[in-house]
What we know:
It is built from seven helices and three strands; from the N terminus they run ααααααβββα. Strand 1 and strand 2 form a beta hairpin. Helix 2 crosses helix 5 and helix 6 packs across helix 7. The longest helix is centred in the middle third of the chain and has 32 residues.
Amino acid sequence: MDKTKILKLIKSIKGYELSLKHDSLEKNKKNSNKPFQRFEFLGDRVLGLVISEYLIENYENNSLDEISRRFIHLVNTNTLAKIFRYHDLNKIFKHKLDPKSDKNSVYADALESLIGFIYLKKKLEFTKSLILELWNKELNTLPQKDPKTFIQEYSQRKNKIIPTYKLKDEKGTKHKPKFKVSLQIEDLYVEGEGISKQKAEISAAKKMIKLIETK
């Protein structure tokens, strides 16, 4: 199904506009229901389920590490924003945001909101089919293995923040330095060491990935 047909299908779902109406449109009006955020909350879970199922069914011979990398790529903010733009959903998205806002993050949230709304209206099988159509060009992507990028995307997806590496210790000589950094994501904490800050951060990122995969 091409993107014109997909957009037409989305527009045919009664009330779809509600999911693309950002809370910022009525920021001066008290609205405890916050439908956009509620749809987004649900859409995030539905998307995770659909993509996880697809990867497990289609990449059964892949290692868990490869499946995790595929998953992180498919549900990260940049990928969602890319899909949102590609299907011209940004043209029907209603909002009044600060121009300095991170558009990628906002578009990613809007796509999840749309998914949550469609799930409530059309249930799982319809929503699953639509997600796979929307993600069609990205589904078989295996991104390069970069521990720090992996952790950054995971943290942005999970907590909407960029992870911070903290320098804990610096010792050794000028020609043989040794750095120790810490990294924490929610209740997961690791430390990494290396002959440079960069190598220490990569070491910490690798340890964090292992914790995430066994959580």
